[in-house]
Amino acid sequence: MSRKNKFTFMLMVLIGIVIICYSMRDVKLSVLIHDFFTLDPLWLIVAFACICIYLLVEAVITKVLVSNRVSTFTFKDALRVPLVEQLFNGITPFSSGGQPGQLVVMLQTGIDGGRASSVLLMKFVVYQAMIVVNFFISLLIGFHYVATKMQYLSLFVLFGFLIHFFVIVALLMIMYWPSFTKKVTRILFHPVKWFVKDEKYDSMRVTLYEKIDNLYEESIRIGRQPKLMIKVVLLTLVQLAFYYLIPYFIMLALGYYNVNVFMVTSLHIMIVMIISLFPIPGGSGGAEFSFESLFQSYISSNSKLVLAMILWRILTYYFGMVVGAIALLIKPDKVNDSHKVVRKKE
Hints:
Layout: H1 3-23, H2 29-37, H3 41-67, H4 75-91, H5 98-108, H6 113-149, H7 151-176, H8 178-189, H9 198-223, H10 226-244, H11 246-253, H12 261-275, H13 286-295, H14 302-329
Helix pairs in contact: 1-4, 1-14, 2-14, 3-4, 3-6, 3-10, 3-11, 4-5, 4-14, 5-6, 6-7, 6-9, 6-10, 6-12, 7-12, 8-9, 11-14, 12-13, 13-14
């Protein structure tokens, strides 16, 4: 991890501590400590198991997609992919560093760059699509509650959905409509010509077109395997289900046994949508505010609400960054990706 990334990591931890301290402004530390030691450890372990399963299932998805062509790709390296993704998602605005971080990890193992990019893009498209599916379900269950209690948050939720939807459309265009994608790319890429020499510009444009062709070929190949795609879709649904259930088990650990699991899960789905709108890494500030705003009607005790928020952020944000930093230190296994993707020349 570079010095800049280490600095960002420490900065985000510091920002988190400041936000937590601010959230505790009306809560006595002694009361918070008392609430912590009255937690039901069994349900807290279940909540922790949920985030672990979430990461493990994503590792399985990565291995399934890569092993379809590179059988020597190990589960250890497949597990490093989502862990490093968590780290770079957590220290970059809009989680923009997650995809490049995963790509670097896969390249370290010897996977062809085009194949790795295609696998990550396919995984990302399925993931985003399943988020949208879950969001539609959550709308039916919990949007009325959000719109009634907090109208301003409902606007953030809908805006977050639109962003995810347009991301999917853009990615599908890259994967299955390369001719149109190149036309759009040519227009958007043209301003680069104002800042670089013609030879450099032509070289960059050819490389970009080759990557589009490469992604298209690999996407078509994977898309022609319906059993593989169905398997990835089902695994992604399972992955997201465990992630979305984390607040529910935290509430059980706090002693709130009568909460509606479907409503709590739906509210968490909406929080995820809201977080995606905040440019600060990890949605810091917005995540904590959204959680407290949506769950204050369910958790009557202010100290327990703050404790629930802290536990939720530790499990869904800080834990991933810590294990991601550890994963970077693990030496990857090498594979022989001898069947390189054939690239077309523009």
